[in-house]
Amino acid sequence: AMDQHSKIYVAGHLGLVGSAIWRNLQEKGYTRLIGKSLEELDLSNEEDTLRFFEEEQPEYVFLAAAMVGGIVANNTYRADFIFNNLQIQNNVIQASHRFGVKKLLFLGSTCIYPRDCPQPMKEEYLLTAPLEYTNEPYAIAKIAGIKLCESFNLQYGTNFLSVMPTNLYGLHDNFNLETSHVLPALLRKIHLGKCLEENDWATLREDLNRRPIEHVSGQSSDEDILHTLQRHGVGPLGSGDGQAGAYQVEIWGSGRPLREFLWVDDMADACVFVMENVNFKDLAGDKKEVRNTHINIGTGKEIAIKDLAEMIKSIVGFRGELVFNTQKPDGTPRKLTDPAKIHGLGWRNRVTLEEGVGRLYAWYVSSE
Questions:
Q1: Cα Dmax for the chain
Q2: First vs last Cα of the chain: how many Å apart?
Q3: Nearest CA-CA partner of 15 in 171, 184, 225, 180
Q4: Are the beta carbons of 125 and 117 closer than 8 angstroms?
Q5: Packing angle of the helix pair 78-98, 136-156 (nearest 10 deg)
Q6: What is the CB-side half-sphere exposure of residue 240 using CA atoms within 13 A?
Q7: Model pLDDT, residue 368
């Protein structure tokens, strides 16, 4: 089994998930970790990947490298999302088999489930109905990854496992307002609203220097900054005729859809737990047809976007209004994972949403 001296390769160790797995392994005393940046190793290149495995001979592999993005990116770069993700996972899984990796953990996402999936989503609902169109190419790549792991295990006796996390958030999240997911986007917008409300231009400019919005940075004029923030729904209340000095943050949709969020360090803890304690044979059982051996990782708890926004507002200390723009689409009404399988294996998440958002905000305002 994996121990402190095992050689462990974390593919994608600089990303949101990979960096959390790396931190978790370090905390647990694992000393022989291998990570390569994209500049050092392009996993979509088969030759380079095989050479790396031959030279390093890792014993355990966390496959957290992937091309990821929000709805717009997924729908725009459809070919890139399916092709690049298939390339990466094909190369890493093939190399892991060829060079005798003892155990591999493949990370997917809950977008693998049908668009109109019964709720909460159980592992066995995979491939029972059509996928959500916008991210179908990405989802198909992830499903192929699960099947690749299962098939190698069945044909070659490898020990390749797959986990499917729910919506993740945490340190090093993406706060780019054009591409980020709902939680970090709300956190940042509400923070910017608070800066306006307190007339705190120093903090506002610092935020924009760290993470420019479009082409607007802290160096831009007041007018350009205000104009850009307003385009992203952060600005004076109403049409400007509300009470002077009151600000609003506009949120897309009704705020009614329910979403599940998992602190990324909890997710990483689950990954290391699975790697340490679970084997393919435990998941496959002695069924004649082996499928759905992947494991959901979630909290099993959900929150309405409106309640999430209110929670963030109180953590940030914004006193203005949250305005829901019902002209904008809501997306799926519910997306909740059923974590019964991982609970049965002995793991549960620890960090509550309130605690996680508090930590994320403290990190956001203090980090470079």
A1: 70
A2: 38
A3: 171
A4: yes
A5: 20
A6: 2
A7: 57
Which stretches within 9-56 are classed as H helix? Answer: 16-27, 46-56
Length of the chain: 368
d(CA 240, CA 237): 6
DSSP assignment of 78-113 equals HHHHHHHHHHHHHHHHHHHHHTT-SEEEEE--GGGS
Phi/psi for 323 (5° steps) reads -115, 125
Q: Strand 103-107 vs strand 247-252: parallel, antiparallel, or unpaired? A: unpaired
Residue 267's nearest CA partner among 355, 160, 349, 146 is 349
* Closest C-alpha among 5, 122, 107, 128 to residue 61: 107
pLDDT (0 to 100) of residue 85: 96
Tokens representing residue 120 in the block: 């909460």
The CA radius of gyration of the chain, in Å to the nearest whole number, is: 22
Q: Which residues, at least 6 apart from 281, have a Cβ–Cβ distance to it below 8 Å? A: none
Averages of pLDDT over runs of 10 residues in the chain (368 residues) are 95 95 98 96 97 98 88 82 96 98 97 95 98 93 98 98 97 88 95 96 96 94 96 84 78 95 98 98 92 97 98 98 92 92 98 98 88
- Verify whether residue 77 is a known catalytic residue: no
Give me the sign of the Cα torsion angle 120, 125, 126, 128: negative
- pTM surpassing 0.90? yes
The type of residue at 300 is G
Q: For residue 286, what pLDDT is reported?
A: 86
- Name the active-site residue from 60, 138, 361, 364: 138
Listed residue (10, 54, 59, 53) closest to 34, CA to CA: 10
